[in-house]
Amino acid sequence: MKKNAEHVEPGLNLFSCSRQLERIADHATNIAEDVVYLVGGAIIRHHPEAIRD
Q1: Is 28:20 a contact under the CB 8 Å cutoff?
Q2: CA 16 to CA 37: how far, in whole Å?
Q3: 24-53 exposure pattern, b = at least 16 Cβ within 10 A, e = fewer
Q4: Which of 6, 19, 30, 44 is within CB 3.0–4.6 Å of 50 for a Cys-Cys bond?
Q5: C-alpha span between 6 and 11 (Å, rounded)
Q6: What is each CA distance from 52 to 1, 32, 42, in whole angstroms?
Q7: Whole-angstrom Cα distance, residue 44 to residue 18?
Q8: Which of 34, 36, 32, 13 is closest to 24 using CA atoms?
């Protein structure tokens, strides 16, 4: 940042984008867990090994 200040804003944008992608992935995981529960009645939150049953 000290060497090239023009890279600060794009770097912050990239960081923000990566955080938003992580949030999207968390939401997708929650949706998938809800679908598994609705279809099969299995609660797989906190128990990923339940998927194999």
Answers
A1: no
A2: 32
A3: eeeeeeeeebeebeeeeeeebeeeeeeeee
A4: 44
A5: 9
A6: 47, 15, 11
A7: 26
A8: 32
- CA-CA distance, 38 to 43, in Å (whole number)? 9
Q: How far apart are CA 50 and CA 48, in angstroms?
A: 5
One digit per residue, the tens of pLDDT, for the chain of length 53 reads 788 899 999 999 999 999 999 999 999 999 999 999 999 988 888 765 655 54
- Cα 23 to its chain centre, rounded Å, is 4
DSSP state of 48: G
